[in-house]
Amino acid sequence: MDLRIDTPLVLLLLLPLFLYFGWTYFRERQRLKKSHIVVLAIRIVAICCLVLALAGPYLLLPIKEEQIVYLLDRSASMNGTEDEMAQFIQESLQSKKEPQLAGIYSFSSTLQTEAILSKELKDVPKLTEIKATDQTNIEQSLQLATGIVDPKKATRLVLLTDGNETKGDALEFVSRLKGANISVDVVPFSLPVVHDVSLKSFVSPQVAYVGEQQQLVTEIHATAAGQGELLLYENDELIHREAVELTEGTNVFTYKHAATAEGLVKYEAVIQVGQDAIFENNKLTSVTMVQSEPHLLIVNGYETASPIAAALGSQSIAYDVVDPKSLPNELSSYLQYNAIIFDNVPGHLVGEAKMSVIEQAVKNFGVGFTMVGGENSFGLGGYFKTPIETLLPVEMEIKGKEQLPSLGLVIVLDRSGSMHGSKLELAKEAAARSVEMLRDEDTLGFIAFDDRPWEIIETAPLKSKEEAVDTILSVTPGGGTEIYSSLAKSYENLADLKLQRKHIILLTDGQSQSGNYEDLIAEGKENGITLSTVAIGQDADANLLEALSDMGSGRFYDVIDEQTIPSILSRETAMISRTYIEDNPFYPAIYNAAGWNSLFANGVPQMNAYIGTTAKQGTTVIAESEKEDPVLAQWQYGLGKTFAFTSDSTGKWTGDWARWQDWGTFWQTLISQMLPSYNDVAYDVRLEADGSFMITDPTNEAAFLDIVAVNEAGEELETQLETISASQVRAVVQAEPGLIFFRIADEQQAIYQAGLSVPYSAEYELLPVNEKLIEELTNQTGGAVLKEPQDVFRDFTTKGADRQNIATWLLLASMLLFFMDITIRRFGWSFLTKTNKKEQPIEEKPVQAEDTNVAQLLKGMKKRS
Hints:
Elements: E1 2-5, H1 14-28, H2 34-54, E2 57-63, E3 66-73, H3 82-93, E4 100-107, E5 111-118, H4 138-148, E6 154-161, H5 170-174, E7 182-188, E8 197-203, E9 207-209, E10 213-222, E11 226-234, E12 237-246, E13 249-258, E14 263-272, E15 283-291, E16 295-300, H6 307-312, E17 318-322, H7 331-334, E18 339-343, H8 352-365, E19 368-372, H9 387-391, E20 394-395, E21 407-414, H10 422-437, E22 443-449, E23 453-461, H11 465-473, H12 484-495, E24 501-508, H13 517-526, E25 529-536, H14 542-551, E26 556-559, H15 565-577, E27 581-582, E28 589-590, E29 610-611, E30 614-615, E31 620-624, E32 630-637, E33 640-645, H16 663-674, E34 684-687, E35 693-696, E36 706-711, E37 719-723, E38 728-733, E39 738-745, E40 751-758, H17 771-781, E41 800-805, H18 807-827, H19 853-864
Parallel strand pairs: 3-4, 3-6, 6-7, 9-15, 16-17, 16-18, 18-19, 19-33, 21-22, 21-24, 24-25, 25-26
Antiparallel strand pairs: 1-2, 2-41, 4-5, 8-10, 10-13, 11-12, 11-14, 14-15, 20-30, 22-23, 27-29, 28-31, 31-32, 32-33, 34-35, 35-38, 36-39, 37-38, 39-40
């Protein structure tokens, strides 16, 4: 047991107190009686207790239990050492003593439990799979381990690692462990010597021009001499293949290439060898801005040749034409273009993942975008509440229009076990969007089925959209799949309703027992009920579902990409709930808009039809129908300019516009209006050694730059900016290895694009054991570098202790002594002997009362008189 004090300086208060009491004693010692000395002593002890309590005293009571926590580094650099580490721990556990607790935890980028801290641990359990192995975060593992242990007990953290941390700062953390009764032991482990070839760097010019010879420089490191094959790609197309001789150490290869692609062009280098220890370090990417004339991407939704391409001709802007299914997933593929046109493209052929990437290209990189009407576009294309609707100047919903047909909609959703996960979640989200498209007076029913139908929302007029959406989103997966009874229930619910349009949407990913579908659907058609079906995945009975939709006079959708489900249901709901196509010929009204007035100086051609939409607030409407619906509208979305042309491009809807002599000029004007304004200033963007990016502005206005970083998937990345000087800004970006794109805009919103490669983690480099870090960790915490397993449970140099605060007890003692002091001074000592006075009466003697001050004063006055 040990007595300690938190703030010993408080004890200095005792010095003046002792001096005062000492002075009082020597001054009054002749007149002090024994009882007075006792009272003074009580008062001194009470004050001492009070001062001691203020000093924060406590007792340290020894704790016999000790804690040993194993921390296994299972990052990629330690791959293949698990068995060796487990054997080391197993052997060390044989030396474990009775009062000692042990626990086992694995770590890479985070910590996970293998065996909880306990006295019962005797054997190493089977190690669980660790997911992310691309980082080694020793700091976090130590921090989390200190949170697991009891801080009162002596603790030893045993690190089994190579010491090569790629994230965090372990030394900074252990510097805060001083006095925490925690030591860190390290058992060094490393991979055996293996043959590995890795790409150390791959550099392409930051800026080049079409046709310019540019150098692609590759640096390859080999642990031993050998042969390999170097492959170079431009936008995922192979441009160079070369057999290379590798010497031990560094090898540099240079290849000259004349760029043919335009915009932000991705280059990729891959080294292939027969025997290689780590494959993750065999590939690197680089990005070059290849400048040229503007380049347009036309996404053609027609099965025939693109009408827009035909109208533009061969002497206009350079363009590529693709079908919707060929759209890429990567942001870099869209940044090759200055503008994108969707011509009658149905949303379910695009998918929301690609829509999100396009939205990033428009918002943050200034790529222009136009949607052109048609039977598969706008609301009829299923774009309600999608990223594409977000960037367009119009909404898919028609507001404040003429009377719409009364509608009854029943959604029949498969909730069987096979729909578990993203399929069910996306299907529920799709159903919720369909509900939001309905009017309050529309009729809605929702049936979820597994091996039986569950009527989640009874078929009735819609009372609360919010409540219906919440109910749909709460559906959970169930058992088997039985379609017929659920379909029969939905037909039964709609049969007797007096509505102008009655429709059923069936979504399933499975197969079902046969039923009398022909009679069921035929009877439904007599009652005005139509049926559309959605087959989700390859296991769905596509033949049956397509036959059902044919019999039900609806549409069939064969879904491979689950992301397209919301667009499908939005399209279905739009087609049956609205009359979107306005097909009465009219002359559009043209409003004053920069760049368009001269085009219509000789009049406006007649137009046959368009798709109804609603202009968003802030939209510039260039052309409008006689019903005041937008025909041509534009607005600014982020840094991109977007347009909506609600008629078509074929001439079927545009009528005389397609035969107009300025039809080609119209499209060229539209495209030129979409093009972004690029900055001629070449900002220098470089990756620093610490993983941050340094952006240099030659105009010395770095503090005023607007900088956004986006990855290949179109996800905007968290970016922290720090102004270093007038010409430099440091950007710290939370990015995974791969391509990252920077959009840099000045105060005039002029755009500069740059792409850089975030290299693979240092985890995939063959490095020796970091002996310096290991030595520092053990020295700073009083630990040791272990070689023998039995040393893990060696005697602790310091023991654990339980801190018991005694300030409260001292305060109570001080209060009790003060109470005694007051009682004795008030009543004297007689209250202690009060019980004995009756047994031995004492004769009272007359006591001459002392003259008071008043009495003495009166006597003096009498003498003077």
